Amino acid sequence: MRSLLSSLVFALFFITAPTYAGQEVGGLEINYIPSFKKDTAFADNLLSKFPDNIRKVIISMDSFLAPPTNGLAEARLIKTRYVPTLNGNIDGAAAETARQIATLEGVKNFQKQIVRLSVSGFDARQVSIAAEKSNVKVGCEILIIYNRETNVIWQMQVMFAKAKGIDPTASQSLDEERSYAKKLLSSVKVIP
Asked: Taking a C-beta distance cutoff of 8 angstroms, is the pair 34, 69 a contact?
């Protein structure tokens, strides 16, 4: 009798428990509880670093940042709309993103993996990065989605890190953070 009652209570809780549907950000739905806020200064700064020939093919760039949670250092979405005449190259975008991180000053032991996938029927790539910088282990999961019809590329970046402490036996593993980041990116959907 007791196990039947426990099962009923669990089933009732499971059925009535609220589910988190996510938030709409820049044309995507993302299951991440802290709210994303528009970060115009970041987008403006990023655009200012591009050469003129790149800036000329960008119609708009928006950046959204959310507070970190679950061991993450940063969760950021960058949405870029290009001129219609530009033929986008998602493989080039993924490779260039990895290259930019690999060539940051002080980065060593850089490793990357790029996986082809589809998100809501759109061509996508997931870039997984591991590296060290200034005595810190750094990880990054980046989801890049390309809508060929609108010439929009979304780049959802999730970064995490652990500093090497004074205790040499302390765990430097980023496995939990990477697992959470991958789960977060797997929740992303393009809003029709």
From this structure: yes
Structure tokens, 74 = 């940063």
pLDDT (tens digit per residue) in 45-55: 999 999 999 89
Question: H helices of the chain, where?
Answer: 2-16, 40-49, 52-55, 90-102, 175-186
CATH classification at residue 125: 3.40.1000.10
Residue 10 lies in a domain: no
> Looking at the whole model, is its pTM more than 0.90?
no
- The burial of 152, by beta-carbon neighbours within 10 Å (0-12 exposed, 13-18 middle, 19 or more buried), is given as buried
Residue 13 lies in a domain: no
For 187, residues 6+ apart whose C-beta sits below 8 A from its C-beta are 22, 29, 30, 31, 32
Q: How many domains does the chain have?
A: 1
SS3 labels along 16-37: HCCCCCCEEECCEEECCCCCCE
Please check whether residue 44 lies inside any domain of the structure: yes
The residue range of the domain holding 93 is 23-190
The pLDDT tens digits of the residues spanning 104-149 come to: 999 999 999 999 999 999 999 999 999 999 888 999 999 999 999 9
